[in-house]
Every structure is written in C-alpha cells, then in structure tokens.
Amino acid sequence: MRHRMKRNKLNRYASHRNALLRNLAKEIIEHSSIMTTTVKAKVGRQYIEKLIAKAIKAYKIKESNRAESVALRRQIFAELGDRRLVNKLVDEIAPKFVERNGGYLRVVKVGPRRGDGAEMAVLQLVSE
C-alpha cells in the first residue's frame, strides 16, 4: 500500500535529496534568504520549518528542562551537522518566532531563470 507516500522527490535519489535539503537549510540559517527554483523552495520550506519548530521548543524550555533542550539541539545537529548553525538557530532565530504559530518562511516567486526558463523563487525568513 502507498499510504502517506506523497512527497516531491525532486528527481533525485534519497541521499542526494537529503543533502540538497540539508544544504538549503544551512544557507537559510546562515544568510536568511536564498534564491532557488520554486519547487526546491517549497520542499525546503517544509523541511526548514520543522527544524525551526524544534529550535523554538528548545529555546522555550532552555531554563526549565535542560536535558530536553539538549536533546532537541542534538536532533537539530543530526540534521545540519554544524554546531555553529545549531546555536545560531536556537539562540538568535528562534526567539524571533516564539510568538508565531508556524509560517516562519515565505516563498516569493521571481520569474523564469534566463538560462533554462526554470521558475525561480526567493526563500526567506519572515521578519515582522
């Protein structure tokens, strides 16, 4: 049965797709805005918003439950593989979104790419 199998595979095998999403997440955390194709932006948004949700949870419970906060940081580290980016995500980016219930990223369509006509978009953190 194919229950709950709906996912855009981006015409890549699993390890390539995971590396792509990991790299998109690293660039968003580091630069807060990137230009990519619209399809990659939409798939990357789902991936990155889950990481931000974990970071917000880790930030909220930092004082009360230290062990769970460390566990969440380790889960984020398992996805990103860079401790500096994990600290930036939890300590700098997460506090901006504590009051927000999702929708941490926006996809703004830019138009076709000049070389091959692929639909391009800017994926950026929402800053209110």
From TrEMBL:
Pfam families: Ribosomal_L17. GO terms for cellular component: cytosolic large ribosomal subunit. Transmembrane segments: none annotated. Gene3D superfamilies: Ribosomal protein L17. The keyword Ribosomal protein applies. Part of the 50S ribosomal subunit. Contacts protein L32. This is Large ribosomal subunit protein bL17. Keywords: Ribonucleoprotein, Ribosomal protein. One of its GO terms (molecular function) is structural constituent of ribosome. It comes from the Bacteria. The keyword Ribosomal protein applies. NCBIfam families: L17. GO terms for biological process: translation. InterPro entries: Ribosomal_bL17, Ribosomal_bL17_sf. The lineage of its organism: Bacteria, Thermotogati, Thermotogota, Thermotogae, Thermotogales. Belongs to the bacterial ribosomal protein bL17 family.
